[in-house]
Write a sequence for this structure.
């Protein structure tokens, strides 16, 4: 799977003039899809024949397929701002359970945003180290630079070759920064093939994070007050690992966004996948 | 008979020498900087050798020598100018309470030009550094007011730099860089950190930093500008977040002073980071040098130093290695 040329990515995030844009080039576009049944349970072992791909409404051939367990490479961004301070320990506990659920080559990076945006330099599967960061590096208070933090999170995984996930734990309320930043997040995630997941507690809401999660083929969840948090986070980790990798040759490589549709032949199943892709020409 | 006894005595002498040599094998002398102060923080610098005792790995050891000199220092002042240090908080001034950033530019100037510069002696070597997302480390600075003001301007430019957009606080990493920089300095080495303790985005843990500092014979003093944060939690009692804990631990582990500023609303004393920086430097200057013989195995060993004077507080590295 790794030998497949990876989808072209252009994520030139407007964080600062010093930040380099990173580009790849490609013959094959690679997207990830999650399939669940009517009850929301994962359906992990569908065969290749089950999937149909459409680019701008026209069928394209599925050239690469995998239903194997995917390694997780993710940045978890925890909202520590004043508006979520009453849930900070809950967030911390939830991420702790996610850390417990890591397996094999899974790697997480932990970040936070409030008074500061702090993205840990450690991208690791070392559970003790991740828990130390959770314990020692989260400070409550401040505003909510949500979009800027998400851009930082995306940027922090830019050089990773694996499937990349940004999991945001927040009420989805951005304070400070331009609305343009929200568009940058959406564009950066779609063009770079990042999957956005958003999670909050019941009653907190998720704001625009829901839309962005859907656009990128990710997901969102408002955890019910009576839910078993450990079980919930274990399920989140399971979902992040059990995704289908679908690859196809784009009809045109023009660096522009194209509509993507993933369909299943079996009725009654729900598929979540990115709704757009951007094929980039290979660099010379 | 006399010859036999003489031969026996010679043999015993050789044996004793061998045993003594054996006892020394694998050991080496190490100098340790130990500060002693009153409960008010005033340095005590007139203690005799016999007033000190030391234990390595819990076992008492002989102190080979104690020296007390006002030694020249190499000092690096590390100021946290990250996002959280710009947050407004209540500060008690002599004429009342007002809201100010944790470290305003005016206070920064007092810390650098008054607190830091005024504590230096001619033979000292000084550097100013700052941390805001990335570290900024200035060159060795001349002791003139103009030179300090120019260096402060460079630090402020770093603080305002838009590329430090996240304004995060990898304080341990910056302190580790300074430890490495000071490692080869011939004088007593000290890093003084001024921070609110909201550290994040570090590669180094506090434990690794302390280990590195002790190995490089660099003490880390902390001027703590933190406040405990109380958080009402949704489904649990109020939780407290204490940024001071790790700061205190790093200072104590490396033999540096831990000085908490009066930053709480209603505190009896006004906030005085400049005065505390000065005190941290003075405290290290007045410290004693103890020479101890410790195992030469390259591993850290716990160290405890105490003095006979009952009202004295002792500051020494929590571990030692050759």
């Amino acid at each position: 799977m790794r030998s497949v040329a990876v989808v072209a990515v252009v994520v030139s995030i407007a964080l600062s003039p010093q930040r380099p844009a990173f580009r790849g080039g490609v013959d094959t576009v690679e997207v990830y899809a999650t399939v669940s049944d009517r009850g929301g349970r994962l359906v992990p072992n569908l065969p290749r024949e089950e999937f149909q791909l459409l680019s701008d409404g026209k069928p394209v051939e599925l050239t690469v397929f995998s239903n194997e367990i995917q390694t997780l490479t993710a940045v978890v961004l925890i909202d520590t701002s004043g508006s979520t301070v009453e849930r900070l320990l809950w967030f911390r506990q939830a991420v702790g359970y996610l850390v417990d659920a890591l397996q094999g080559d899974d790697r997480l990076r932990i970040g936070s945003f409030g008074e500061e945006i702090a993205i840990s330099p450690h991208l690791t599967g070392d559970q003790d180290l991740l828990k130390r960061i959770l314990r020692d590096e989260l400070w409550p208070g401040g505003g909510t630079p949500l979009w800027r933090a998400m851009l930082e999170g995306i940027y922090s995984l830019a050089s990773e070759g694996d499937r990349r996930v940004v999991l945001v734990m927040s009420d989805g309320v951005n304070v400070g920064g331009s609305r343009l930043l929200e568009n940058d997040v959406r564009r950066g995630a779609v063009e770079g093939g990042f999957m956005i997941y958003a999670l909050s507690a019941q009653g907190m809401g998720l704001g625009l994070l829901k839309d962005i999660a859907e656009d990128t083929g990710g997901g969102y969840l408002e955890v019910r007050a009576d839910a078993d948090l450990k079980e919930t986070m274990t399920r989140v980790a399971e979902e992040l690992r059990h995704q289908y990798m679908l690859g196809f040759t784009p009809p045109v490589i023009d660096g522009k966004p194209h509509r993507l549709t993933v369909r299943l032949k079996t009725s009654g199943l729900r598929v979540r996948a990115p709704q757009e892709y951007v094929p980039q020409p290979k660099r010379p | 008979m006399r010859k036999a006894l003489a031969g026996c005595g010679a043999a015993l002498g050789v044996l004793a020498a061998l045993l003594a040599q054996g006892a020394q094998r694998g050991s080496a002398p190490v100098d340790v900087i130990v500060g002693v102060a009153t409960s008010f923080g005033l340095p005590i610098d007139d203690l005799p050798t016999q007033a000190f005792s030391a234990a390595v790995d819990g076992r008492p050891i002989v102190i080979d020598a104690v020296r007390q000199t006002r030694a020249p220092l190499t000092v690096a002042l590390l100021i946290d100018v990250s996002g959280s240090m710009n947050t407004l908080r209540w500060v008690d001034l002599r004429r009342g309470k007002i809201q100010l950033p944790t470290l305003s530019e005016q206070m920064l100037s007092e810390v650098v030009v008054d607190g830091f510069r005024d504590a230096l002696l001619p033979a000292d070597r000084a550097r100013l550094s700052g941390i805001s997302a990335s570290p900024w480390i200035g060159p060795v600075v001349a002791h003139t007011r103009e030179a300090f003001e120019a260096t402060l301007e460079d630090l402020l430019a770093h603080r305002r730099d838009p590329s430090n957009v996240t304004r995060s606080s990898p304080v341990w990493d910056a302190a580790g860089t300074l430890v490495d920089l000071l490692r080869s300095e011939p004088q007593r080495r000290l890093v003084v950190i001024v921070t609110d303790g909201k550290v994040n985005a570090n590669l180094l843990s506090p434990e690794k930093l302390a280990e590195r500092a002790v190995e490089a014979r660099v003490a880390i003093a902390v001027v703590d500008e933190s406040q405990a944060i109380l958080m009402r939690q949704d489904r649990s009692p109020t939780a407290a977040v204490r940024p001071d804990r790790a700061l205190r631990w790093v200072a104590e582990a490396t033999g540096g002073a831990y000085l908490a500023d009066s930053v709480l609303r209603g505190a009896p004393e006004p906030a005085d980071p400049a005065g505390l920086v000065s005190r941290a430097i003075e405290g290290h200057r007045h410290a004693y040098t103890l020479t101890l013989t410790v195992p030469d195995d390259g591993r850290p060993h716990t160290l405890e130093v105490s003095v006979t004077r009952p009202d004295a507080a002792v500051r020494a590295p929590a571990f030692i290695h050759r």
